[in-house]
From TrEMBL:
<dbReference type="GO" id="GO:0016020">
    <property type="term" value="C:membrane"/>
</dbReference>
<comment type="similarity">
    <text>Belongs to the peptidase M50B family.</text>
</comment>
<keyword id="KW-0809">Transit peptide</keyword>
<keyword id="KW-0812">Transmembrane</keyword>
<keyword id="KW-1133">Transmembrane helix</keyword>
<keyword id="KW-0378">Hydrolase</keyword>
<dbReference type="GO" id="GO:0008233">
    <property type="term" value="F:peptidase activity"/>
</dbReference>
<protein>
    <recommendedName>
        <fullName>Peptidase M50 domain-containing protein</fullName>
    </recommendedName>
</protein>
<dbReference type="InterPro" id="IPR044838">
    <property type="entry name" value="EGY1-like"/>
</dbReference>
<keyword id="KW-0150">Chloroplast</keyword>
<feature type="transmembrane region" description="Helical">
    <location>
        <begin position="320"/>
        <end position="338"/>
    </location>
</feature>
<feature type="transmembrane region" description="Helical">
    <location>
        <begin position="243"/>
        <end position="266"/>
    </location>
</feature>
<feature type="transmembrane region" description="Helical">
    <location>
        <begin position="134"/>
        <end position="156"/>
    </location>
</feature>
<feature type="transmembrane region" description="Helical">
    <location>
        <begin position="359"/>
        <end position="392"/>
    </location>
</feature>
<dbReference type="GO" id="GO:0006508">
    <property type="term" value="P:proteolysis"/>
</dbReference>
<feature type="transmembrane region" description="Helical">
    <location>
        <begin position="412"/>
        <end position="431"/>
    </location>
</feature>
<feature type="transmembrane region" description="Helical">
    <location>
        <begin position="214"/>
        <end position="231"/>
    </location>
</feature>
């Protein structure tokens, strides 16, 4: 098409002068620079002049239309006194009344120019297609079963025994020790399940369809049992509030369950069988500082320097306390502002795509710092960093309305979750002698 011969140059100009969000730029880049392979279509947009007539000027004042074959970019601003969300819904209704509701989609996005906004009119078939195939169901079930097994294998629970005790143990004693992992496993899985249930409740409120959760077992390098779950959106999110609400709900639910389990475990005191011990040196920095005074006398310690205080290696504990601690760590790591993690979604919603991305580099540095810790403590950060970069990098498609401001209460909760998640993820290796 003659209009798209210089599509790349004009898209680059829009990126420099008009479109603020990288996710919005990616959304229109696919149909502008080339259709998806293997997709044939005869669908076309209505003429730009007709689109301007349909949308009118009482809700959105259009100053310029940048035409591509399969995308129209309308520069302008929402009319003063009209709420952006109301303006968008009114214009979508007008398109539907003229018979274009089934074939097109309208997006309202932020502009680099202060006081200005941008409308995208696209063909729905050019939007990301997120159908859920049969093999993905198989993968979901396989990962669920693997996670149910992996949550029983963590490095936070240790059993102190001599070589003599180890060789003289019978099958009943081995079974007794193995069963001690069950409450911890239940606590970890309950935390992750609560996060996903809360995410789906929030998604339902805003009419967002999600994929089933892909639980992520931590294997073959055991640490926290499960890194949470990957959930993708199957449709367009209506606004930034919906994006933020899903991640806030997930974080709050995860913390609620893990803190409840932790407090319950602390109220029980150490395991009466004296089997379960907490591997203290794996704890993040803040949990080390807060929990050490309430854990009592250490069960295993080391004193490499005879002139320094001994280092606490392990404390008597119980499976519930350990399960609550691991739950806190899993939730906190997922609240780091990286990619598609809950923290990444919150950071980009609060600060914008560019500033949220810069914050993500800081979070990656934190993971790199944690990975320098010796033994299993560093392994937690290495494996989670691998998971975040490989499976949760990039960003979600932009919401239909990214201009409407998010409710202040929700934004405050999101900010607090980001801060808490980051603070609770600070590696304990920063104070190795604690």
């Amino acid at each position: 098409d003659a209009r798209d011969k210089q599509g790349f140059q004009r898209l680059e100009e829009l990126a420099q002068k008009t479109i603020e969000d990288e996710a919005a730029l990616r959304l229109i880049a696919v149909p502008i620079l080339g259709r998806r392979l293997g997709v044939d279509s005869t669908a076309v947009l209505p003429p730009a002049s007709q689109v301007r007539d349909i949308l009118g000027s009482d809700k959105f004042s259009t100053s310029e239309v940048v035409e591509f074959q399969r995308v129209y970019v309308l520069r302008g601003s929402v009319v003063k006194g009209v709420l952006p969300g109301d303006a968008l819904e009114d214009m979508r209704a007008r398109l539907a009344d003229r018979g274009y509701g089934e074939s097109t989609e309208l997006f309202l996005q932020r502009s680099r120019e202060e006081g200005q906004s941008v409308l995208f009119l696209m063909l729905k078939e050019d939007l990301p297609q997120n159908e859920f195939a049969w093999w993905q169901w198989v993968l979901c079930v396989a990962l669920l079963l693997a996670s149910l097994a992996s949550v029983n294998i963590t490095t936070f629970s240790v059993v102190a025994m001599s070589q003599m005790n180890a060789t003289s143990m019978d099958i009943n004693e081995v079974t007794k020790i193995a069963l001690k992992t069950v409450p911890t496993a239940v606590a970890i899985f309950a935390t992750v399940a609560a996060q996903e249930a809360a995410r789906r409740a929030a998604a339902s409120k805003y009419g967002v369809e999600l994929t089933p959760p892909f639980f992520i077992p931590v294997w073959p390098f055991p640490s926290v049992g499960c890194f949470g779950a990957i959930t993708r959106r199957l449709g367009t999110v209506p606004n930034e509030e919906a994006s933020m609400a899903m991640s806030v709900a997930s974080g709050l639910a995860g913390y609620a369950v893990s803190f409840a389990v932790l407090f319950y475990g602390l109220s029980l005191g150490p395991d009466p069988d004296k089997i379960v011990n907490l591997n203290f040196q794996l704890l993040p920095l803040l949990l080390k500082l807060v929990l050490k005074p309430v854990l009592g006398q250490s069960s295993v310690s080391d004193q490499p320097d005879p002139f320094a205080d001994p280092i606490s290696i392990a404390f008597p504990s119980n499976p519930y306390t350990i399960g609550g601690i691991i739950g806190l760590i899993v939730v906190s790591l997922n609240l780091l502002p990286i990619g598609r993690l809950d923290g990444g979604v919150l950071a980009k919603s609060i600060l914008g795509g560019r500033n949220g991305g810069f914050l993500g580099f800081g979070a990656l540095f934190l993971l790199l710092l944690g990975s320098l810790a010796p033994n299993d403590a560093g392994l937690i950060y290495i494996t989670f960093g691998f998971f975040a970069i490989i499976f949760q990098s990039g960003g979600e498609s932009p919401p239909r309305d990214s201009v409407t401001e998010v409710d202040g209460t929700l934004k405050t909760l999101a900010s607090l979750l980001l801060i808490l998640g980051t603070v609770l993820s600070l590696p304990g290796a920063l104070l190795p002698n604690l």
